[in-house]
Specification:
Layout: E1 2-9, H1 12-22, E2 29-34, E3 52-57, H2 67-78, E4 84-89, H3 95-102, E5 111-113, E6 117-119
């Protein structure tokens, strides 16, 4: 099971900084980020690490307009069986719907969701 945390709120830079601080470089980790950064981020330094994979998805609600994009990216990511997964969301508006999606098959047998992190 991949330990998975949904991170929302604040700005992209704050979410990415929180994720960067939460990564254990010895653990295979994948990060799915909604949107593009405003500039360089603290995750840039981790992109060269063989244990960290970073995927960016165009901005848009990941449970509505971006649902297919999120599912395709998530399915590709899970083929590599990361031990840790962070999903960064621009807003917490549909956090419950995204969580519900991740608790349904096939993700229910692949992901172990942690408590959501909402930054202010």
């Amino acid at each position: 099971m991949t330990l998975t945390t949904l991170v929302s709120g604040a700005g992209a830079a704050a979410r990415e900084a929180w994720i960067a601080d939460s990564i254990d470089p010895s653990v295979p980790t994948t990060i799915i980020l909604e949107g593009l950064p405003d500039g360089s981020t603290r995750l840039d330094a981790l992109a060269a690490s063989p244990t960290v994979q970073i995927h960016r998805i165009a901005p848009g609600c990941l449970c509505c307009t971006g649902n297919l994009t999120m599912r395709v990216t998530l399915n590709r990511v899970l083929r590599n069986s990361p031990q840790r997964l962070f999903i960064s969301l621009a807003t917490a508006g549909h956090l419950d719907r995204i969580r519900d999606t991740l608790l349904q098959p096939p993700y229910d047998s692949l992901l172990s969701l942690t408590q959501d992190t909402q930054l202010s």
